[in-house]
Amino acid sequence: MENIAFVLANIVAILIIAPVIDGIERKVKAKLQCRKGPPILQTWYDLVKLFRRPSIVTEECSLAYIISPYIVFANMILALAIVPSFTRISLSFFGDIIVLIYLISSSSIFLAIGSISSGNVFAAIGANREISLATLSKLLMALVLATFATLKRSLMLETLFPIVPPYTLSAIVSIILFAIIAYIESYKLPFDIPEAEPEIINGILVEYSGKSLGMLKYSIYLKRILLFTIIAYLILPKEIPMLLTPILYLASIIALSVTYVCIETYCGRLRIDQALKFVKTLIPVLLVVLIIAYFNY
Amino acid sequence: MHTSTTKILDLLSKYGKIEKVHENTYFVEVSADKVREISEILHWKLGGRFSVTVGSDERPINGYFRVYHVFLMDEQKLSIIVHVKINPAIPKLPSITPIIPGANWHEREVHDFFGIVFEDHPNLERLILPYDWPEKVYPLRKDVSIRELRNKLLKEENEGVEKREAEEKYVVPIGPYHPALHEPEYFELYVEGEKIVDAKYRGFHVHRGIEKVAEERLTINQIPFIAERICGICGYTHNVAYCQAVENAAGIDVPLRAKYIRSILLEIERVHSHLLWFGVLFHFLGFDTGFMMTWLIREKIMDLAEVLTGNRKNYGLNLIGGVRRDINFEKIEFSLKTLDYVETKARRILDKMLKLKEVISRTKNIGLLYRNEAKKLSVVGPVARASGIDTDVRKYHPYAAYSEVEFKVPVYDEGDVYSRALVRYDEIFESINMLRQLLKNIPKGNIMADEIKISEYKKGLGLTEAPRGENAHLVITGRDNKIYRWKPRAPSYNNIPSTLVMLKGENLADAPAIIASIDPCFSCTDHLVIVDIKGNIKRRIRLKELARRRHC
Amino acid sequence: MGARFHIFKEALRTGVVTKKYPFEPVKVPEGFRGKPSIDVEKCIGCEACVNVCPPNALSAEVDLNKSVKRIILFLGKCIFCGRCQDVCPTEAIKLTREFELSTLTTNDLYQVVELKMAECEICGKPYATIRQILFMAKNVPKDQRPLLLLCSECRSKVSAKYISYARW
């Protein structure tokens, strides 16, 4: 029973923190561009404004377009329930690592399905790009998680965290690769492609407005936090006292997002074919690491 | 092959009477059947280039319509204007578009505004007037006043349906494309997957009728202020081109100090315009940091303009015969300090940004325009210089104080987006160099001419090099302190048709960068069109239909 | 990588450039062309500014009943070119350095100067402002000053009579 209470508390805490982290990112990015930047709570103000407005739908839309924001949001919340965050307690069960991959993939797919069903051509182009990129990067993510599973010989997230010690070569390399994949997954430049504003006018998000847009943007922020959470817990040692965990967790999330922003600010956007080429080069590397992990190096 | 001026004038005199209007500018009257021949000789055989076509309703003066074709011979530093008189009862003229594709839009515009039919023109459709404009109403003719036009339009409301056929080999014609900076160009990109297979363009959504207003309602000295507002970035070049056209027509001698001041402000405008362009290019490539930091440098130039003229953009500095505001020692010191700052910052920042891998991979070999295409379409400015054509009005038809400064004209051969960026990059530093020379050597003297007498029905041509290319203004003075005909031609008019060539075969993701690379100069509206795939008919949406949407 | 690092260094060196306007005032340089303002004491109602204004932001109207001329400046049309300042003979209209002109009432954008007009001695029609006549009197020889008290039609008739007398 108390487990459920802790899990719910976790989820609520993350729901509150996610837009604040995005606000911190925007502020740091602005300072790096010599500007003052918006206040840290600005993302919260934007989301509240979006939730207050009605959603306008196109004449040609279908059911998928209307319900996909809800599905994506629900997927993210479930994924957050499975991983530990402010406390180490989460809904863990055998095979939850596979469920995690499923939830992350299905959020991308439903996002694409939703925008294709809107009937807008730009959304279709954006969804096209989203699916091409997502298929490859989910494959990569599955391979990395498989590597982690192989290292600890288990399919439960609880036993995977932390992955080090022991400091094997495959462990360290796979953490770095996971960090790169998380960067690609979180739509940061140079991989900002499905959502590119000047090119296809916000691609997958172009036909959404009001509540639906608010939910989709929120899901994107939650996905970033989810990926950062996994990276943080891969490194945080198990022996930290219960009271210190939230603080260390929050600190590591902020550190990760600030690092990512510093890299993002100085990059331009890649074209979809260039991005896919880059991602494809990572596949053989991952396969090699997977094999090394099998042999416990 | 350098033909001398005398040989050219001899050749032209065989076609008609030559009139020397002012220094290096000759008007030749020819008959309608010789227009094509002489255009071909001037543009293709003697190394000149076509610049602009102007139509004029001269029935009150001499009973005819008249069409002027302006050709510029860079090597010989001449401007040759070939004109034909047209019988108002049967207004037609052989078109020169089959020989010079760049004249396409120019002739369509004359057709729209005067009703002159150009025979053998490939597509003599409406260019500027909207589809629902009433037939047989030609706005720039002298027998229609602004009030009558307004009354006519308020009464008649046409539906205006336009039939367009989608060609079969294209899978899905994706309709209007809005590069998200909300500029009113309407490019129709036909796409297969991510590759563009064809592009069409429809513009002039914000045509403001400046020519008609200037003819009817403004005096000669009020027009510089409206000329300045033609463009939101390079307005001062239009101002100077107009003043030069009138000063040339009336034979007014502008004092040298005024010419220096005009050149100083023209170069300041060039620097800020190119920095703005770099910001826009980086924004389209997704590199927002580049956008922020180049505009940061630009702010200092805008502050300099404010100190020198009282306003960041609308300098309001020119009157016919000179300038209104002088420059003193403190302002010169301040300008030199600002230029030092701008040069160091630009070298540090822009230089590094143009070396980034993402920027290079998305601009090299993209948006190619080869030299012969560029010559056919008569492109001007950095677009031409990046395709290997050495043309710059400041060097080859010097005006203001440009004959007194030393500078180089950067020319690159590749014709892609990257070389256009390099041309503009080099031009920034050349301009700073020129500014230093102008500021240090400015002579003493008056800033306004003593004798200003403007007689009626005199013709003049004013040319300037705007940041986007060459500006050409043709002026015919009138009576009662008014202008009879004024035709300002901005450089983007010649450059936009080249985007349709550049876009074919490129990726959709590169389209904004390609369109931005010609530095198009529009103002802001958007237009929405639906292409119905089944029926192949386009409908224009009016605002009240947009309001009929379902809420959820 | 080196290029990116240089850009980063440059950004740090420049610092934050955002100004705190509107929470701190912005200084505009001398010679800035802001809102024009008419000094009521100096204006003589000659309408030189009305003639020259490119967008017709300055206009004049004559109220025949009350014998006043009004010079009306509407800032909504003003382009801040300063031509009015160039041509005013008494330096009554000048461009200030104010640029914060937003308001919720259009009336704030109007400045009206009312000047009393003189009535023609012969026909009684108001024809020019009193100040304009006094200004002109300085440039007119003493013996012809009485002609200034007539409207232009009556003046032409009287002058014609003088000329015909002179011929005699």
Q: Report the end-to-end length of chain C measured between terminal Cα atoms.
A: 101 Å
Task: Give the % helix of chain C.
Answer: 25-40%
Number of helices of chain B: 19
Structural class of the secondary elements of chain B? alpha+beta
Overall pLDDT of chain C: 90
* Major β-sheet strand ordering of chain B: 1-2-5-4-3
Mean pLDDT of chain B: 83
Coarse morphology of chain B: globular
The number of distinct β-strands of chain B equals 19
Assess the beta-strand content of chain B as a share of residues: 15-25%
The CATH class designation of chain C is Alpha Beta
Largest sheet data of chain C: 4 strands, antiparallel
Q: How many individual domains of chain C?
A: 1
Strand order of the largest sheet of chain C: 2-3-5-6
Could you tell me the CATH topology label of the largest domain in chain B: Cytochrome-c3 Hydrogenase, chain B
- As a percent range, the share of strand residues of chain C is 15-25%
Which CATH class of the largest domain in chain B?
Answer: Mainly Alpha
**Architecture (CATH level 2) name of chain C:** 2-Layer Sandwich
Distance between the termini of chain B: 71 Å
Query: What are the low-pLDDT stretches of chain C, counting only 5+ consecutive residues below 50?
Result: none
Quaternary organisation of the protein chains: heterotrimer
Helix and strand topology:
The complex is a heterotrimer of chains A (297), B (552) and C (168).
Chain A: H1 2-32, H2 42-52, E1 56-57, H3 63-82, H4 96-116, H5 121-152, H6 157-160, H7 169-185, H8 197-200, H9 210-235, H10 245-265, H11 272-294
Helix pairs in contact in A: 1-2, 1-9, 1-10, 2-9, 3-4, 3-9, 4-5, 5-7, 5-11, 7-9, 7-11, 9-10
Chain B: H1 5-13, E1 18-22, E2 25-29, H2 35-45, E3 49-58, H3 59-62, E4 64-73, E5 78-86, E6 92-94, H4 104-114, E7 117-119, H5 146-155, E8 162-163, E9 172-177, E10 186-192, E11 195-202, H6 210-217, H7 223-228, H8 235-250, H9 256-284, H10 288-309, E12 318-319, E13 322-323, H11 329-353, H12 357-363, H13 371-377, H14 382-386, H15 393-396, H16 417-440, E14 459-466, E15 469-477, E16 483-489, H17 492-503, H18 511-517, E17 529-531, E18 537-540, H19 543-546, E19 550-551
Parallel strand pairs in B: 2-5, 6-7
Antiparallel strand pairs in B: 1-2, 3-4, 4-5, 8-18, 9-10, 10-11, 12-13, 14-15, 15-16, 17-18
Helix pairs in contact in B: 9-10, 9-16, 9-18, 10-11, 11-16
Chain C: H1 2-14, E1 36-38, H2 48-52, E2 58-63, E3 68-74, H3 83-87, E4 93-95, E5 110-119, E6 126-129, H4 130-137, H5 152-167
Antiparallel strand pairs in C: 1-4, 2-3, 3-5, 5-6
